[in-house]
Design brief:
Structural class: alpha/beta
Shape: globular
Number of domains: 2
CATH class of the largest domain: Alpha Beta
Helix content: 25-40%
Radius of gyration: 20 Å
Strand order of the largest sheet: 1-15-14-17-12-11
Bound molecules: zinc ion
Distance between the termini: 16 Å
Length: 311
């Protein structure tokens, strides 16, 4: 039997790293909420405004993956030096999402021009969209193009809750720090998405610009808590959607095995994982043994589409 040595891109949660392999009664499959963290936060930037680029070196130094929902006809996309900076943003591991081409027209073409631009310019696929002005009339178009979409009304998203994946909640960064939003995610064990349009000092009229130092202090605070998963909308959103899917599967019992089969939604990103526990037994995917991670979980490949527990 080949051992499947998984190295997912999920960050390591806080806590001990030498937990023993569960050796109780086989069964009781559970998905860890938020990859083993208490809560989750995503920082998103809309409109590809100049001050996002002006502050990019400092943003990158914060050491967190972020999502940039770009409007592809903005002037900030065009000059060669700025195009190179957007390419660097992609290479640095941040997400580029779709915020349409012209920010005005609710149409398939307006979305697809932006996706084509991103794919052709940066060589990266596009998995998520943020609707200009939070306009939900984009949703039917989003459903055939992306696996997730962000709206603009605030609040927590909870594991296995009924939040519409095509209208994710989102909190616009106020003029003061957003620690209360991070604290809220932590206390209810939820996911909050924070939206910044730009920073003070920009020259292209960013909506409600935020003082950079206040923003950075908020990120430093969120990181300092140690149990908040800070990642892109697509990375956290894939985990959240997949947890719901696996949790809703009715397993098939056969002989001494239990098997869960699933189908991922259209446009779901490849190469994603869930972290699960069982009370005991041995987990396999495609006849490959899953290795226990001493941080307290097995990592399940979502692309595999199937998970088997041997009793
Ligand atoms: Zn916008």
């Amino acid at each position: 039997m080949v051992k499947l040595n998984i190295i997912s891109s999920l960050p390591i949660p806080p806590g001990v790293n030498n937990l023993p392999v569960p050796s109780g009664i086989p069964g009781n499959l559970k998905v860890l909420n938020w990859a083993g963290f208490t809560g989750a936060v995503s920082y998103t930037f809309d409109d590809s405004t100049s001050s996002q680029l002006d502050n990019y070196a400092e943003l990158q130094a914060l050491g967190i993956p972020m999502t940039f929902y770009i409007q592809t006809n903005r002037i900030t996309m065009k000059p060669v030096d700025l195009a190179a900076l957007w390419s660097k943003i992609v290479k640095d591991g941040h997400e580029i999402g779709n915020h349409t081409n012209d920010h005005t027209t609710v149409s398939a073409a307006n979305i697809d021009i932006a996706t084509d631009f991103i794919q052709n310019t940066f060589g990266t696929d596009v998995y998520s969209i943020a609707y200009p002005y939070g306009d939900t009339s984009y949703i039917p178009l989003a459903k055939t193009r992306f696996f997730i979409g962000r709206g603009v009304s605030g609040g927590n998203i909870l594991p296995n809750d009924s939040t519409d994946p095509y209208n994710l909640k989102c909190d616009i960064h106020s003029t003061s720090r957003m620690d209360f939003v991070v604290d809220s995610a932590r206390s209810v064990k939820g996911w909050r998405i924070i939206l910044v349009h730009g920073f003070t000092g920009g020259n292209d009229g960013a909506y409600q610009p935020v003082n950079y130092d206040q923003f950075a202090a908020g990120v430093v605070y969120a990181k300092s808590l140690g149990d908040i998963w800070i990642d892109t909308v697509t990375n956290i959103g894939a985990y959240w959607r997949a947890q719901k899917i696996l949790s809703s599967v009715t397993p098939v019992f056969s002989g001494n095995t239990t098997t869960w089969n699933w189908t991922l939604p259209d446009h779901f990103p490849p190469g994603k994982y869930l972290r699960v526990t069982v009370d005991g037994g041995t987990l396999y995917q495609n006849d490959k043994l899953l290795e226990w991670d001493g941080h307290g979980y097995y990592e399940v490949s979502l692309d595999a589409g199937s998970l088997t527990l041997a009793h």
